[in-house]
Amino acid sequence: MAAPAIAIENVKTGEVTEAVYEHPFIVRLCHWVNAVALFVMVGSGLQIFRAFPSFGAKIPQKDLLNWPKAFAIGGWLGGALQWHLTFMWIYIASGLVYIGYQIFSGNHKQVLFGPRDLPGVWPMVRHYFFFGVKPPVREAYNPLQKHAYTTVIVLGALSVLTGLAIWKPVQFSWLAWMMGGFHWARLWHFVIMWAILAFVFGHLVMVVLHGWNNFVSMFTGWKKDPEYPVE
Amino acid sequence: MSSRTNSRNFRGMSRRELLKLTPLIALGGFAIPGLQKPLLKTGLGFSDWASAKLFRSAHLAPTFSNSDLTPFSKFPINDYDVDDPEVDFDKWTLTVTGAVQKPGDYTLPQIQGLPKIRQNTRHVCVEGWDVIGRFGGVRLSDFLKMIAAEPTARFVNVECADDYYESLDMATALHPQTLLCYEMYDQPLTREHGAPLRLNIPTKIGYKQAKYLTDLKVSHVLERVGYWEDQGYSGFYGL
Questions:
Q1: Which domains does chain A have, with CATH numbers?
Q2: Do A89 and B43 make contact, defined as CB atoms within 8 angstroms?
């Protein structure tokens, strides 16, 4: 779906540049609310993990990793649980509003990875990882980007479901059962957090590589000098 | 290209779009020391409200076979204070007060006269570990019938020999798996596991399952939630 485009004439030089309205308001709002919520969920989650830094039952067993307190939120288990049980609602709400908006506005066509993106995956991988020629840019997101953004939504949903399974292992015993039991649900919850953090790392690298205009667009919605052709 | 503008107008347009994001500043409230505590308390309160809504009276916690049991010697002993508050078993009674028609001191044989329940259920600690234990006792709901608790009462409050205290919402108190527990692994409760009487509630987190019970009060209002709750933990914490 083509985003609305505009031609901008510089009042001093008369030079004309193009801009495209790439990120609708709801998408920008959800993005930043979710960024804050994710930060708090990871920080408080790691503090909760510090209380029993292991997996399985409480058969005397070695701590897996002693996560430093400086990289955790809440100060102690009870404090971290307050943050976690508060921000989980904000995290869930931002996710639901985002997904709902993408579906009902039709904006998902810009970002959802689909079968038509498949042929473009390999050329993009070659370009990113093996110094291949850059494939021509035709739309806002390339196939690999769409793949990443679609995958991270699935991971976000799984982080909620695995969290629900360990918060409510009785009321949602079927959820824990589907994940291989209570112990596995806790492990999945932890693994999915790292998968999301891996996405965030790659995301931030790409933000740095793609420069200022791209970064500003996540605040104002408008991207100046888009790399792809506009109507 | 459908529309045209100049750089000055574009800057204004961009600024207006940026200002639409000002609601985000509300999240900054969590960083203000005076606001942080009440905000987190509200968040935890909302989670407790949702937990109570998610609780289903007829939904049973998973039960396990004897081969799934954690060996008794590996069942952790957690206290907030002492392992053994030195209860005098000869003089021990459960003192019942509050919204009941038959208040008074109940002896262990009186309580053990109610139908006996045995269950292998998961004990989940707020720290994140869990064990599967075998518990024996009487249904709290049967005991509430015996003491003729008022049907409109909303809470069951307990006090313990080590000065620990806890409370239960009535829906959980009436749940068929909520026990006044006097046996673990088919043996009388040992002192460090809460002899002579403790709570076993497979639908609640560990710290709600108080040990060394001495007093039980049925009430319409919640006067004290619980020891750990007063330190900042969740009040409902249903599993």
A1: 25-54+65-212 (1.20.950.20)
A2: yes
